[in-house]
Amino acid sequence: MTAPHAQSILAGYMARLESELDGVSPAGRADLLSHVENHIAEARALLANETDADLLNMLDRLGTPAELAHAARESTSGHAPPVPAPERGALEVAALVACVVFVPLGLVLTWAAKGWSRRDKVTATSIWLGIPLAVVVATEIVPAIARTGPSAFHPQWLVILALGLPLLNPVGLVCAAFLAVRWRRRGVATVLA
Amino acid sequence: MRGVSVLGTQMRKGILGHCVLAMLDASPRYGFELVQLLGQADGLLTSEGTIYPLLSRMRGEKLVDTEWRESSSGPPRRYYRLTSMGRQALEEFRQEWTRFRVAVDGILQSGGNQ
Lengths: 193, 114
Prior knowledge:
- The complex is a heterodimer.
- Chain A contains nine helices and no strands.
- Chain A has helices at residues 6-20, 26-45, 52-62, 65-77, 90-101, 103-112, 118-148, 156-164, 169-192.
- In chain B, helix 1 (4-26) packs across helix 4 (84-110).
- In chain B, 61% of the residues lie in helices and 17% in strands.
């Protein structure tokens, strides 16, 4: 025997549920509505002489439309692919080691690796080129020009600088330290994203 | 310190899915049947309907799959059964849960004193 107000009680519940499901994907929405309809049918089949109170109690145990919609949203967000682990490849380690031993090779590996952003790579390269250049300009070229005029500038300094750059281990250490810090931060940022 | 009800909610979230996997390990079951079984376990299911989004999620994660079967007492039923991934996840949970329970029980009983 059907409860006197079964139709309005159940239709009202389903309407509120549909309304609460705004923002849930169409598939998730259809799935939950189908589950709830089946649940109600199964629960009603167990009631020999259902009353309005029976139906209200059954819906109370089922949960409010807002609770179900909240669970559906949580479930949908759980479908997101797992956060990829930060890059911790052998190439990054090789790049850091190479920066200490032989800077040009280290920077080539750095540009090939995925553990740093383009900005980090440009910065590391600028450190390698910029520090020695600044030191030579500040300690040799500027004082020489100040003493004797532009004729004091000898292009061979640039050749010496170019040949000497790969051997400047202190600069390589600075590059490696910068890249190591940026690599770690990038990994942490990826995990927290 | 979080309230007991909040703590219970958080614990249920992590555990309920694995309890469902364990129930499906015994045999395939349909949604309402799972609700009734979980209802017998005190405190595991506060709102019966919240099990359904969980089942949908586990199906999406390929921990369970489904098949429709005719029912003698009403509309067709969607039965859930474990996949090999679900069985593996259940086995990992069994081991982890045992280790976790022993460790927590030990601390609760002894207060951390050896």
